[in-house]
Amino acid sequence: QVQLVESGGGLVQVGDSLKLSCAVSGHPFDTDTVGWFRQASGKELEFIGASSWREGTSYYANSRKGRFTISRDNAKNTVYLQMNSLKSEDAAVYYCAAGLVITNISREYDYWGQGTQVTVSS
User: Fold this and answer.
1) How far apart are the first and last CA of the chain?
2) In what order do the strands lie in the sheet with 3-7?
3) What is the pLDDT of residues 33-68, one digit of tens each?
4) Which site in 8, 23, 42, 105 is 20 to 30 Å from 117, CA atoms measured?
């Protein structure tokens, strides 16, 4: 019954900032975490970070620390991904996913959004 919908993607320029949203419906607190992933054209799915609803903590892939930040609005059942200083390599489809525990393994997440496209131009 958990459903996730990403939004906020679009066209940005190198160096810009962008904030993505993941609206969670159903019973989001039946799962422990919401994770963010991305997949660039022709590349594998890449873990960005995840946030624990229970603990109120966030964890990031080492390569994403600093530029990317996950935050939550519990009242709106929404998780955000703030992306700063965007690079051309950041262009990808971004997904949010819900799972039981914080993990960087995509198959461990049970529910997925449809994805939102982020395009970065020079």
Assistant:
1) 40
2) 3-7, 18-25, 78-83, 68-73
3) 899 999 999 999 999 999 987 777 888 988 766 899
4) 105
